[in-house]
């Protein structure tokens, strides 16, 4: 872990994990460097909610998110962070349309980040289906890989999906681009690249965050990091 | 305002009124600062290094939403690949490289690249601003040291990198922190002069690409799904053209289809997202299914009588393509093919549908479309299946491109 001091407006302090005091959560949101970029005021006009895809299918309104944060009601903001804001589809239609140039989607992203870093209760459940994505993104920097498209996980994608996972290595070899002829990563990622990525995750507190929210995943990733570092350093 | 056969083909919708009267007017009245001017000032002060577009990149100038000029490099490009495309829609990047070969353009596709990590971030929140900016700068710097200009394949990477570019320019604290981390990995803080998406590259080269066409597509009705993270994130950095939708909607993708001679049909929910939702595609799947069917596929078919949905991003292609089959449970019996603009263009230009366009990975029926385009996919399929057997028997695979050895560093 880096010994450099954490600048709170740039990223959250890992030492704050577990602090779920409502006022402290609201303060963390408002002190984020991006807060001034995404909120400039609000007319309460509802244009954002009028075009919000999640508003059509969930009890969710970007207008209410913005209004609640601006109201300063810390407890109401905290209540939203546990479930409500996770309905946002992150499409930024709200940002495109807001006459004030607000970005409710951007505000939601700050709130999600704070909710995760503070280890809020719903986060563990919300992140459970993300295990495979997190493992890939932490270990090789890819988020989706060919071997993740398995019929067991995507039965609703129809009868052609089993084709995608049968004889996968040969079918990937038949893609006429050398870097893509792999199955466990989206493309061949050099060990040096992963090595640099690990330093970024370490220096920005991402590894420490994962250690706090998913110790089992962290243990798996740590072993991979250690092995790769040994390999890269031995060839230098 | 200029008119053209293009604008005659599209119907005016309520959304056009909305975008004209709300978004564009507001933006034009209070134009945000041009980050490129600020970047040039920082460079002059020695604060950052800039990846410049040079003559070697053979740039072509276009206009963006606010009338600013954007230079799109067309040559000597570093492929910033997309994990979702490479992992799930491999014909997306292969079609781009196939066209670059056809046009004799120079490029570098190598292994020293990570994803932008922004899909995971938008879905799960398990990262932070400094980490995202550092990942972006690491990839930019890698392109910089090779002498090739980064071409971003993924819409979310494109949107995220536009955001990171702007935040890095605006905030010294962020620059300092990213610079400190780059020093630890032996790199420098560099920022590209322009953040460029592949659909922009396709757009500026559309006439050259259309000249490669071998199949008539004038009877094909296409519908375009503009990708949210391409045109709604940092919207002022997106190409608009007065000849495309009267300059009220983004021009890329629609313009290449028109250049190819295809019909582009309007539909009332063009503005909507695809339903991907970042986390929803994994954790709220009923939303992705319902939204993509109800707000996109159904409308494209019933309003526009579309033969094919054309995309320009990763998650959209997956969401629109993969979520049609399950709709049969509720009586949605649509079989609308879904593919990227560059894949459609490659098919029109005679690329092998299996070996190059890799259409076999797409799940919604595309066979009728290819028949309608006059493409003999059955022969292609037979050749592909024979090729798979040869690969199983130990044949070395064919390559559109092999990276130079020194760029692999595979240990």
Could you characterize the architecture of this molecule?
The complex is a heterodimer of chains A (236) and B (411). By secondary structure, chain A is mostly helical. Chain A is 54% helix and 0% strand. Chain A contains 15 helices and no strands. Chain A has helices at 22-30, 35-38, 47-50, 53-57, 62-71, 74-82, 93-97, 104-117, 121-127, 131-139, 161-165, 168-173, 191-203, 206-213, 215-234. The two termini of chain A are 23 Å apart. The model of chain A has no long low-confidence stretch (mean pLDDT 92). Chain B is an alpha/beta fold and 411 residues long. In chain B, the strands form four sheets. In chain B, strands 9-8-10-11 form a four-stranded parallel beta sheet, with helices on both faces. A three-stranded parallel beta sheet of chain B has the order 5-4-6. In chain B, α3 crosses α8. The model of chain B is unreliable at 1-14 (pLDDT under 50).
Describe the structure concisely.
Chain A is an all-alpha fold. Chain A has helices at residues 22-30, 35-38, 47-50, 53-57, 62-71, 74-82, 93-97, 104-117, 121-127, 131-139, 161-165, 168-173, 191-203, 206-213, 215-234. Chain B is an alpha/beta fold and 411 residues long.
Main attributes of the structure:
heterodimer, A: 236 residues, mainly alpha, globular, B: 411 residues, alpha/beta, four-stranded parallel β-sheet, 46% helix, disordered N terminus
């Amino acid at each position: 872990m880096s010994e450099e001091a954490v600048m709170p407006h740039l990223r959250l302090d890992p030492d704050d994990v577990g602090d779920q005091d409502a006022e402290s959560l609201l303060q963390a949101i408002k002190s984020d460097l991006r807060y001034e970029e995404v909120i400039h005021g609000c007319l309460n006009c509802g244009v954002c909610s009028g075009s919000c895809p999640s508003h059509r299918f969930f009890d969710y309104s970007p207008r209410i998110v913005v209004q609640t944060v601006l109201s300063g009601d810390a407890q109401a903001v905290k209540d939203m962070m546990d479930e409500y804001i996770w309905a946002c589809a992150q499409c930024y239609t709200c940002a495109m349309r807001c006459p004030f140039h607000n970005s409710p989607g951007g505000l939601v992203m700050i709130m999600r980040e704070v909710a995760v870093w503070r280890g809020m209760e719903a986060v563990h459940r919300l992140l459970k289906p993300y295990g495979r994505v997190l493992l890939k993104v932490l270990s090789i920097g890819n988020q989706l890989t060919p071997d993740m498209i398995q019929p067991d996980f995507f039965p609703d994608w129809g009868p052609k999906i089993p084709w995608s996972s049968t004889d996968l290595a040969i079918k990937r070899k038949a893609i006429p681009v050398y870097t893509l002829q792999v199955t466990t990563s989206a493309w061949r990622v050099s060990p040096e690249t992963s090595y640099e990525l690990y330093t970024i995750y370490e220096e920005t507190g991402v590894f420490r965050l994962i250690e706090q929210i998913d110790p089992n995943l962290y243990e798996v990733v740590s072993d991979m990091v250690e092995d790769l570092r040994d390999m890269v350093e031995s060839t230098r | 305002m200029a008119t053209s056969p293009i604008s005659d083909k599209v119907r005016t919708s309520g959304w056009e009124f909305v975008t004209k009267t709300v978004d564009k007017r507001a933006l034009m009245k209070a134009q945000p600062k041009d980050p490129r001017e600020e970047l040039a000032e920082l460079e002059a002060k020695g604060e950052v290094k800039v990846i410049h577009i040079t003559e070697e990149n053979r740039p072509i100038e276009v206009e963006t939403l606010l009338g600013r000029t954007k230079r799109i490099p067309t040559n000597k490009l570093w492929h910033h690949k997309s994990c979702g495309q490479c992992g799930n829609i491999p014909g997306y990047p292969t079609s781009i490289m196939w066209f670059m070969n056809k046009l004799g353009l120079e490029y570098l596709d190598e292994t020293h690249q990570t994803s932008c990590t922004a899909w995971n971030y938008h879905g799960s929140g398990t990262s932070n601003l400094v980490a995202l900016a550092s990942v972006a700068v690491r990839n930019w710097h890698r392109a910089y040291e090779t002498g090739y200009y980064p071409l971003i394949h993924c819409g979310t990477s494109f949107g995220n990198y536009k955001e990171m570019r702007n935040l890095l320019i605006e905030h010294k604290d962020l620059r300092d922190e990213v610079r400190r981390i780059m020093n630890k990995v032996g790199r420098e803080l560099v920022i590209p002069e322009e953040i460029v998406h592949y659909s922009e590259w396709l757009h500026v080269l559309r006439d050259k690409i259309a000249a490669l066409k071998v199949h008539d597509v004038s009877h094909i009705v296409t519908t375009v799904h503009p990708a949210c993270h391409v045109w709604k994130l940092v919207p002022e950095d997106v190409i608009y053209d007065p000849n495309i939708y009267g300059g009220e909607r983004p021009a890329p993708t629609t313009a290449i289809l028109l250049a190819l001679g295809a019909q582009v049909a309007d539909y009332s929910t063009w503005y909507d997202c695809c339903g991907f939702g970042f986390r929803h595609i994994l954790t709220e799947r009923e939303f992705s299914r319902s939204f993509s069917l109800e707000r996109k596929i159904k409308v494209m078919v019933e309003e526009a009588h579309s033969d094919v949905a054309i995309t320009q991003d990763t998650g959209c292609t997956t969401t629109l393509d993969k979520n049609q089959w399950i709709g049969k449970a509720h009586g949605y019996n649509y079989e609308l093919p879904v593919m990227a603009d560059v894949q459609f263009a490659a098919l029109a230009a005679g690329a092998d549908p299996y070996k190059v366009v890799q259409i076999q990975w797409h799940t919604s029926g595309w066979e009728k479309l290819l028949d309608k385009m006059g493409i003999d996919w059955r022969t292609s399929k037979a050749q592909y299946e024979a090729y798979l057997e040869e690969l199983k028997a130990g044949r070395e695979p064919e390559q559109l491109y092999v990276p130079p050895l020194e760029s692999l560093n595979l240990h």
